[in-house]
């Protein structure tokens, strides 16, 4: 399975790491719903750290798509919500 | 509710899946996508240049303020030497205000530095993926039938599309940050121009003028004393001759 750390790059992860990430992700979702930015940022930081420590970095020229994408922790709550919205944070690609 | 990782992945896939629907002909789709990639690469390069320009402007302001701190310290010392504690105090108060401005500037320069690093890393990855895509597209064009090609194109385009969305976001965030800095920098210029803030960096401040007046006064006094001594030779004045 391949996971992308947004703004950093892609990593190959194993099932055990995937399970750990899911557990953290669940807590991150609750934090976002509770408007708890500190908790959200902390869980996202945990996810980033796990991926960096235990994942295997893909080469820059690898064209594989990611199965999962971890948002950055330095977004505000509004920005994180906007990230998931239709007209969200990610700009349209050049036409 | 889906997790954040899944939602981020879905939203990014949705962003670039449209790209693949544009053209019927696989070769055309590939070439079109490649052009878009090159354009994004130009955008990220321009983004880096903008951040660097913005950073240099802040660094210049910072250097000017640092010089101003040294100058104000010297002026305070001169003023004290002349027994003008009021002027010395004014100079030190201004020095303290300049120092707090400086601290804010340093933080902003550091933030821009971080944005620059992110953009440079993003450019490197995008550039490597574009190169891969370019080779892949030539292989697909040369070796595959239209039906086979569409599968291969899907795979290659998904990988690069994701990177494009990621780089696009990095550019956007750097732009927002740069715009904030420019607004603040311009606001500071305006404050200086309107006199709300003293222009610490201009060649002459009110303090300069007062200090100059003070030192030119003492120059006049000593010249006068020298002349008196020359004119009134034979009437030694001890305090002048020392």
Strand-helix topology:
The complex is a heterodimer of chains A (95) and B (242).
Chain A: E1 2-5, E2 9-12, H1 15-33, H2 37-54, E3 56-57, E4 68-70, H3 77-84
Parallel strand pairs in A: 1-4
Antiparallel strand pairs in A: 1-2, 2-3
Chain B: H1 4-20, H2 26-81, H3 85-143, H4 146-194, H5 206-231, H6 238-241
Helix pairs in contact in B: 1-4, 2-3, 2-4, 3-4
Structure description:
- The complex is a heterodimer of chains A (95) and B (242).
- Chain A has 95 residues and is α+β, with helices and mostly antiparallel strands.
- Chain A has 3 helices and 4 strands.
- In chain A, helix 1 runs antiparallel to helix 2.
- The N and C termini of chain A lie far apart (31 Å).
- Chain B has 2 domains: 2-158; 167-241, no CATH class.
- In chain B, 29% of the residues are buried.
- At the A-B interface, helix 1, strand 4 and helix 3 of A face helix 1, helix 2, helix 3 and helix 4 of B.
Structure keywords:
heterodimer; A: alpha+beta; 4 strands; B: 242 residues; mainly alpha; 6 helices; 87% helix; rod-shaped
